[in-house]
Every structure is written in C-alpha cells, then in structure tokens.
Amino acid sequence: MSPLKDTYRHQGLRRGLVRELRQRGIHDERVLAALAAVPRHLFFEPAFEAHAYQDKAFPIGEGQTISQPYTVAYQTQLLGVQPTDRVLEVGTGSGYQCAVLLRLTPHLDSIEFNEILFARTRQRLALLGANGAGLHCGDGSVGLPERAPFDAILVTAGAPGLPPALLRQLRVGGRLVIPVGGNHTQRMVRVTREGPETFVREDFEEFRFVPLRGASGWQIK
Ligand code: SAM
C-alpha cells in the first residue's frame, strides 16, 4: 500500500480518536475538525503506522517525539487561533502540529532546532502538500524576529522559564502557549499580552515534554 494513502479505515480510526479527545474535554470544534482532517499516520514511518491513532506520543528519531494528540489538541485550543492570525510554532518536529495549525490559519511559521528533523520534515510536508508554512531551522527559543510580531506563539518543548524574546514578539492581544517547569514535568502556561508592558499568565494542566534547547532553553550537550 502507498505510504501516502489515507483510507476509510484511517479516517474511521481518526474519528474514534477525536471522540476520545472530546470525552477528555477538548471542546473547540475547529480544533477537533482540524485533528479529524489531518492524517496523523502519514507523519509516522510506515512500519509504525499502527500507533498513529492511539492517544500517545511516539519517537520520531533524534531523541524527539511527535506529541500526543491530546497535547496537540489542548495546546491548539488554548492558543485560540483565528483565521487571520499570524502564528509561530517553536519545535516543528514531525510537522504534525504544523499541519493541524495550517487548518486554522494560512499565516504560519515553524522553527526546528534539529537540522536532521528539519530537512526530513520539510520534505514530508512538501510531499503531503502541507507546505503553506514558512519552515525555519534554528533556535526558536529566541523566536523569529524577522517575522514578528505574532498573534500566537506555540512552543512544543518544555522550557525552564518564559523566554523573554517570545514575549516581546507577541502583538498586543497575542498569546504564548508554552510548557514551563523542570525537565521531567511541566505546567502548560498561557501568557496574553494585554498591553505593551502588560502580560497576564494563566497556569493549566501538567504535561511531559522533551526539553526546549537553545539560548532560553535547557543547556544540553
Ligand atoms: N510539534 C511537533 C510535532 O508535531 O511533531 C512535536 C515536537 S517535539 C515534542 C519538540 C521539538 O522541539 C523537537 O523536534 C525538538 O528538536 C524541537 N526543539 C527543541 N528546542 C528547540 C528550539 N530551541 N528551537 C526550535 N525547536 C526546538
């Protein structure tokens, strides 16, 4: 079977996954529709396809993971993306979250630290026709100043604190969604820039993420 096939069986499995996410409390219909539309199995090596519609994170190589569907839905829901929003994703990884965000806005940039994952994912997104995002390779913990300001910034790796550059690159009214904490568990945090110097922080559930690297991340060799 072609690895790029999205069959009725895959679509059925996806509907089941979306039902599960709804039961776990995801209620934003646009987010649920985006997850129902993106064929997650196409972000897996064909040999591991059977894992694609379980609500679990999965290794994608280079010590990194494709996030659990619940986490993707949870972060996307907190981000509250509108169709005209300019969005930055930090941590492109497999490109799955990127494809989900592209269902919500065409104005998307995504940055990945790991050069091997970056090259692989750029190719995958092109093959899938999901190449509407500006893809960048580099340290997203300092944001993407040349494309700022953003209405929404989503960080998909766990940070030791709030990266100052990401706060500065938010437009007034913009939201930063980022897991913050130790290197084992992190709390999901949303910061809204309510005025030029006014940032409001809200804390949500705990999650487990791979570490954010780079200047405002964890210093790992
Ligand atoms: N969003 C991804 C997906 O849908 O597959 C999941 C990403 S994985 C949980 C986190 C990613 O963040 C990894 O690919 C990692 O290399 C990347 N990363 C870590 N630190 C980074 C940084 N400073 N800038 C950009 N990417 C970073």
From TrEMBL:
<dbReference type="GO" id="GO:0004719">
    <property type="term" value="F:protein-L-isoaspartate (D-aspartate) O-methyltransferase activity"/>
</dbReference>
<comment type="similarity">
    <text>Belongs to the methyltransferase superfamily. L-isoaspartyl/D-aspartyl protein methyltransferase family.</text>
</comment>
<feature type="active site">
    <location>
        <position position="67"/>
    </location>
</feature>
<protein>
    <recommendedName>
        <fullName>Protein-L-isoaspartate O-methyltransferase</fullName>
        <ecNumber>2.1.1.77</ecNumber>
    </recommendedName>
</protein>
<dbReference type="InterPro" id="IPR029063">
    <property type="entry name" value="SAM-dependent_MTases_sf"/>
</dbReference>
<keyword id="KW-0808">Transferase</keyword>
<dbReference type="Pfam" id="PF01135">
    <property type="entry name" value="PCMT"/>
</dbReference>
<dbReference type="GO" id="GO:0005737">
    <property type="term" value="C:cytoplasm"/>
</dbReference>
<keyword id="KW-0489">Methyltransferase</keyword>
<keyword id="KW-0963">Cytoplasm</keyword>
<dbReference type="GO" id="GO:0030091">
    <property type="term" value="P:protein repair"/>
</dbReference>
<dbReference type="GO" id="GO:0032259">
    <property type="term" value="P:methylation"/>
</dbReference>
<comment type="function">
    <text>Catalyzes the methyl esterification of L-isoaspartyl residues in peptides and proteins that result from spontaneous decomposition of normal L-aspartyl and L-asparaginyl residues. It plays a role in the repair and/or degradation of damaged proteins.</text>
</comment>
<dbReference type="InterPro" id="IPR000682">
    <property type="entry name" value="PCMT"/>
</dbReference>
<keyword id="KW-0949">S-adenosyl-L-methionine</keyword>
